């Protein structure tokens, strides 16, 4: 058995998926396929998603968020290293009670950003779409965390960096992993 096949088997047997690197169409399509595969194989067992990313495309994040809501499995999210921008959103999208971060994980939250060019009409249309995406992101944060609307306005007004302790205070995560039991003691894998 090759090392890659051995690792794939390990990940499948332990119900592990990863969002490492940029959140974009190719990485998201692979992640969604793995989530759907694990959910179909055993809808009663949890899935454990490790996240370390500078973020990426909002629409690609929303695709994963929607799949996480559609599968019957609980999905635990674990932030390691960095969860910035769209990947911070992915971290907070895990099943409530099963959102974790390592002690040194760094998060970044900010409002939706976009680059526009083209005709004035195209730029106006892109601006309207960015506002719709901003509303979606705001609703998700308010639904999944303890952050109050006034606090979110402040957080989204600039690049807001935070550590695991602040993420725990805001309800972005539910536990800081200091021992394996903090994570594995709560999972059905």
Protein described:
By secondary structure, the protein is an alpha/beta fold. Helix 3 links the parallel strand 2 and strand 3. Helix 2 packs parallel to helix 3 and helix 3 runs parallel beside helix 4. The model has no long low-confidence stretch (mean pLDDT about 95).
Please sum up the structure shown.
The chain is of the alpha/beta class. It has helices at 3-13, 25-41, 58-70, 86-92, 120-144, 149-156, 164-170, 180-184; strands at 16-20, 47-53, 75-84, 99-101, 106-109, 160-163, 175-176. Helix content is 49%, strand content 19%.
List the helices and strands and how they pair.
Blueprint: H1 3-13, E1 16-20, H2 25-41, E2 47-53, H3 58-70, E3 75-84, H4 86-92, E4 99-101, E5 106-109, H5 120-144, H6 149-156, E6 160-163, H7 164-170, E7 175-176, H8 180-184
Helix pairs in contact: 2-3, 3-4
